[in-house]
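Researcher: We are triaging several targets before committing to wet-lab work. For this one, the compound of interest is nicotinamide-adenine-dinucleotide. I'm pasting the protein sequence and the ligand SMILES. What I need is the predicted three-dimensional arrangement of the protein with the ligand bound, expressed as structure tokens, so it can go straight into our comparison scripts without reformatting.
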Amino acid sequence: MGRGSDHITKVALVSGAGAGIGLATAQRFARDGIRVAVNDLDPKAAADAAASLGAGHIAVPGDVACQSDAAQMVEQTVAALGRLDILVNNAGIGDGALPALNQQIEQFRRTLSVHADGCFLLSRAAAKAMRENGAGVIVNLSSIAGQMGIPNRIGYAAAKGAVSMMTRVLACEWAALGIRVNAVAPGYVRTALVEGLIASGQIDTRGIEARTPMRRLAAPEEIADVIAFLVSDQASYVTGAIIPVDGGYSAFGAPFDCAGMDALEIPAEGR
Ligand SMILES: NC(=O)c1ccc[n+]([C@@H]2O[C@H](COP(=O)([O-])OP(=O)(O)OC[C@H]3O[C@@H](n4cnc5c(N)ncnc54)[C@H](O)[C@@H]3O)[C@@H](O)[C@H]2O)c1
């Protein structure tokens, strides 16, 4: 958004905001005085999340991968809240985490559809509304899986790679419309879903921590904080950027895990 728009009560549409990072982002926006249209595929999750934010926020349930749903979400947002300034393309699913040789085309296609079709359809619908104001901001949820080759994530990686590239293409196309388009690329985030997988032994946090310079997973609020910066006027000259929010995961290139850093001698004058 351009500078000088602080007096307007901004309106944001956050997809997949019934849980996890999307919910944390909706909560952060509400605290910042932004009106939120909460989308989720699960209508009850969307309604509960919108109600939990307080008065002035609405639910716009629907499937981001469905063209008519995406158009309706934007229409309902503008009809109920008067405008659309911010879109966060957050809705997402996993691909079953299977080796490529075992991946079924249906799961592969659905993963691509939710992330890539969803980002395209909702961004396009939102940009048509934002164009009316001559300004807007879009933040996409990419991932370390969209930047690096992670085994057993063939569908998810392809989907997040598509999201990263659409971020760059749309930033170039829509700068002339006053619309900034950026992405965050989180590492592993402790959402309720991930906590459940950790509790059931399906995710081994030790391996992630060993590979992450900051030696921990992120909290959803730490991703929401960066999204809040990107939609703010403080980021008025930032577009086409894919910001890693990964505790250093994608920067780390040593041929040993981070525990090996303990063995590195740091000279006294360097401390
Ligand atoms: N959690 C992580 O470690 C992590 C890391 C990197 C990127 N991400 C990305 O961040 C985003 C949010 O992830 P999360 O961990 O909070 O997920 P989550 O599963 O906790 O929440 C995702 C929400 O999206 C909704 N959703 C799924 N498909 C939808 C559809 N077709 N239309 C509308 N809503 C739909 C779900 O109902 C759910 O409420 C995703 O795009 C994910 O790929 C997550």
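Researcher: Any quick observations?
Model: The chain has a mean pLDDT of 94.
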